Amino acid sequence: MSALGLGGMPVLAAPMAGGPSTPALVVAAAAVGSYGFLPGGYRSAAQFADDLAAVRASTEDVGVNLFVPDDGDVDRAAVLAYRDRLAPELERAGLAVPEPRWADDDDWQAKLDLLVERPVPWVSFTFGLPGPETAARLRRAGSRLLATVTDPGEARAAAALGVDGLVVQSAAAGGHRGTFDQHRTPDDTPLVDLVAGARAATGLPVVAAGGVAGAGQVASLLHAGADAVQVGTALLLADEAGTRPVHRAALADVAQFPETVTMRAFTGRVARGLRNRFSATYDAAAPAGYPTVHHLTAPPRAWAAANGEPHLLHLWAGTGHRSVRSGPAGAVLASLVP
């Protein structure tokens, strides 16, 4: 068991928002002595409550992850210009060009209220830190806290808040990079070095995340000072994952999708996924504008998922995507234990 007490094995299941991390995946992780984190991102408070109840029907060993709302400035002119650039793409798919949605806190307060009323052992945060009052409220309810960080400065800020541990995420991770400032493009410091830097800066326990594809990498990260390693891409093809069929097929199509790249094209935040036509065509023009850009591209992404079109869909994946295998989630996690 890690120093954090997160299950009996050092490999954990990451919270992959948007579908892949289902309640069944979290339960499967707990069943083999791992620990899974249920994503709250992109779920209404009611949906999140249902997901949490589904997990708790089988286990209390569950963490949850919340997206911290971004209260920074968005360049509205840049977002509107990007919408105009995307308009022909939407029209070709028979879709209306949406009006920008400038505000969206992802049901933040309602989810916090739920977690105070029905506390879980662990709450993790991505895209920033909660305020001190929110952190104290969750602690009083009985939860321990983790913060996703991408550099020593963010790690120190999280330590100052009094979190119990850090999820240290490298640029190799699939999906969104959890930077506090969405306008910053994070560097590509190797995960081993980020782990060592976060430990040196704070002394806090560390969960390492980003591009992990084999037991050898897990062993190296544990040797570097990580208390546990969290994997997401490795579980995208798991039986219990809610990964869309078109996304599953793209992961297996090495000839058409040989590489991952970082991009803002789909959401306005830096994220890593398989390079496709949409990312190649629009990324250079994409502004830092999350979550408004996320909502602008939601209609074509939904259309792409329904119509099996991988070139209009965000195909999130980390650098270890070629090692992804199908099968039970428990077996995938066990295969990564040194």
Gist of the model:
With 338 residues, the chain is of the alpha/beta class.
Descriptive overview:
With 338 residues, this protein is an alpha/beta fold. Helix content is 37%, strand content 14%. It has twelve helices and eleven strands. The protein starts with 10 loop residues before the first strand and ends with a helix. InterPro entries: Aldolase_TIM, Dihydroorotate_DH_CS, NMO. It catalyses: 3 propionate 3-nitronate + 3 O2 + H2O = 3 3-oxopropanoate + 2 nitrate + nitrite + H2O2 + 3 H(+). It holds the Pfam family NMO.
Number of domains: 2
Using the alpha-carbon principal axes, give the shape. Answer: globular
User: What is the terminal-to-terminal distance?
Assistant: 14 Å
Largest sheet, order of strands side by side? Answer: 1-9-8-6-5-4-3-2
The CATH topology annotation of the largest domain reads as TIM Barrel
- As a whole number of angstroms, the C-alpha radius of gyration is 19 Å
Provide the residue-averaged pLDDT: 96
Features:
TIM Barrel; detoxification; Propionate 3-nitronate monooxygenase; 338 residues; flavoprotein; monooxygenase; alpha/beta; 2 domains; single chain; monooxygenase activity; eight-stranded parallel β-sheet
Write the layout of secondary structure elements.
Blueprint lengths: L10 E3 L9 H9 L4 E4 L5 H12 L5 E6 L8 H17 L15 H10 L4 E5 L5 H10 L2 E6 L2 H10 L3 E5 L5 E2 L14 H12 L3 E4 L5 H9 L4 E4 L13 H8 L7 E4 L7 E4 L2 H6 L9 H16 L21 H7 L3
Parallel strand pairs: 1-9, 2-3, 3-4, 4-5, 5-6, 6-8, 8-9
Antiparallel strand pairs: 7-11, 10-11
Helix pairs in contact: 1-2, 3-11, 4-5, 6-7
Pfam family, one: NMO
Cofactor: FMN
Protein name: Propionate 3-nitronate monooxygenase
